DNA sequence: CAAATCTCAGCGGCACTGAAATTT
DNA sequence: CAAATTTCAGTGACGCTGAGATTT
């Protein structure tokens, strides 16, 4: 008697949509984490690098708000990135309470490698969907995220 | 100078789809957790109750595999549920290594309350989407979860 | 005997709270 | 002085690993 039960999610929970979305999000998170692990980066590390690359130098507070990260969690992640030489912290000349964080040239190179790994992980993750579905899902995710912004 | 920056996610990460899906999944998870918090239940508590309700009594091993939970994590969650009288553990007469877990009448009542709270949370969470989009998102999530099943 | 099942101890990622130190 | 910013210490949920005890 060896019951090799596969994944079998309770329909009564899946029906609503919130539970399934949470599970799929976890799977997506795992896939992204795996893609960055070989670079020694975590998900939030890459998020900080990408934010600095896209929006330019920011104070830690602003950087955190953009990514919905708690200020106390920003500290540790930036410590890691700074130790690797991927970001720079400098006092803000306009306000000594703030530190201006910027991405370094090495940080940009690392970010580029992370993007390559991410793209591969995405192709694999969304491999089961055809192009139209993948586009549709992406649109709905963006719409959903806009709602998240409001709610917070 | 008070920069009240809102959520502003890096486009270069969002473009691929995996990052956005991960974020939306986290938001969905938070919403579900909040819906169950007033009942003193966590997400996995409700998942176990729903699984037992939908599929009937199971060994802890099978119960865990169905929900993609590690056997070691099943133990603690069932301890909680059993302490509240929501599930029952009995030795499997066919195999003394196993324990048969079943949901109690009280567990079903609690699960019902959890479903009510979840439905409300879902209406609020998906409030920004029209009915067609909500249906489409749910379909794509199911398709995506099917892929997750394969990959694991 | 090897394998399966339950259990416990521990670690890593992540999100959050509370509070201290410094500066505006 | 109150408020903003960075920082640290701690907690909780969650997923995973490794190992022990019992039974098949």
Mean pLDDT of chain A: 92
List SSEs of chain A in N-to-C order. Answer: HHHEHHEEHH
Shape of chain A: elongated
Rg over CA atoms of chain A: 19 Å
Low-confidence stretches of chain A: none
The number of helical elements of chain A comes to 7
Helix-and-strand structural type of chain A: mainly alpha
Describe the structure using short key phrases.
homodimer, about 150 residues, mainly alpha, three-stranded antiparallel beta sheet, about 65% helix, about 10% strand
How would you characterize this protein structure?
The structure is a homodimer of 152-residue chains. With 152 residues, chain A is mainly α. Helix content of chain A is 65%, strand content 8%. Chain A has seven helices and three strands, in the order αααβααββαα. Chain A has a three-stranded antiparallel β-sheet with strand order 1-3-2. In chain A, α2 packs across α6, α3 crosses α6 and α4 packs across α5. The N and C termini of chain A lie far apart (50 Å). At the A-B interface, α1, α2, α3, α4 and α6 of A face α1, α2, α3, α4 and α6 of B. Chain A binds a DNA duplex (24 and 24 nucleotides) through α2 and α5.
How is the secondary structure organized here?
Two copies of one chain form a homodimer.
Chain A: H1 11-14, H2 18-37, H3 43-55, E1 58-59, H4 60-66, H5 71-83, E2 87-91, E3 99-103, H6 105-125, H7 131-151
Antiparallel strand pairs in A: 1-3, 2-3
Helix pairs in contact in A: 2-6, 3-6, 4-5
Chain A binds a DNA duplex (24 and 24 nucleotides) through helix 2 and helix 5.
């Amino acid at each position: 008697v060896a019951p090799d039960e596969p994944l079998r999610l309770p329909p009564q929970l899946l029906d609503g949509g919130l539970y399934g979305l949470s599970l799929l999000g976890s799977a997506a998170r795992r896939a992204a984490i795996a893609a960055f692990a070989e670079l020694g980066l975590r998900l939030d590390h890459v998020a900080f690098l990408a934010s600095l690359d896209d929006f330019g130098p920011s104070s830690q507070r602003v950087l955190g708000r953009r990514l919905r990260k708690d200020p106390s969690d920003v500290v540790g992640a930036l410590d890691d990135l700074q130790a690797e030489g991927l970001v720079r912290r400098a006092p803000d000349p306009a306000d000594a309470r703030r530190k201006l964080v910027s991405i370094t040239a090495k940080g940009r190179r690392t970010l580029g490698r992370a993007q390559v790994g991410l793209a591969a992980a995405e192709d694999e993750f969304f491999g089961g969907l055809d192009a139209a579905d993948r586009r549709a899902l992406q649109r709905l995710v963006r719409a959903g995220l806009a709602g998240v912004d409001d709610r917070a």
